[in-house]
User: Fold this.
Amino acid sequence: LPLRFDWTDKHVVTPVRNQQTCGGCWAFTVVGAVESACAIKGQPLEALSVQQVIDCSYSNYGCNGGSPLNALNWLNKMQVKLVRDSEYPFKAQNGLCRYFSDSHSGFSIKGYSAYDFRDQEDEMAKALFTLGPLIVVVDAVSWQDYLGGIIQHHCSSGEANHAVLVTGFDKTGSTPYWIVRNSWGTSWGIDGCVHVKMGGNICGIAESVSAVFV
Amino acid sequence: PSGRNPPAAFRESLNRHRYLNSVFPGENSTAVYGINQFSYLFPEEFKAIYLRSRPSSFPRFLADAHTSISNVS
Assistant:
């Protein structure tokens, strides 16, 4: 594994988005993983519809909350085709699910994996390097005040409450860290991203890790 | 975004920042905390709006049970 690796540098990660006051982080993260997985497979990198996942993922609660695992299960079981964001744009509130004909173009997944990588963050780094950006659910209570730097304290692995996308890692410095893309806009953190120390399951980052296959 | 009492929430945020930045002041490259777009919310208001992902339990990854990922073509 390289000491530093970030899928963003490979131009297969879409820009940071802003969920606004919609509690749909779980949908942003799943869609972000699908966008990257398709781009890694050589398809054009393009923004896919988060609103479609918010409105249609029946085992979730839209802007009132949800779980990436339920969304992945829905995408996989129903073989849903995610349409482009331009066709079904984000509106930061729940809406009625819009259906498209089978002939309508879209992006579906072939499967997904979901593991607890506690005490095995090196294996998690291998998974990121091999499979693409990883969906994780963390305890982000202290992220309310985050401005920059590497989070290594004040971030318990208590109750996981926020879904984000791990796009890379950097082990070149004295404190190795994960590179994490959030969905609170680019004015938060480091251009919309956050660095979380690797090792020690900081913020619970290694407990609920998923990857998609396309 | 602002909640039920933005001035009081902002004061509480300032106090929280002072504490968070004081505990490991000299640590190299450690996180810095301060005023941002969420400083006018109480923690419980922030959580109610932005932290809506639900936890799931995941099976433990067993490296030896998998072909070590690094060997996957």
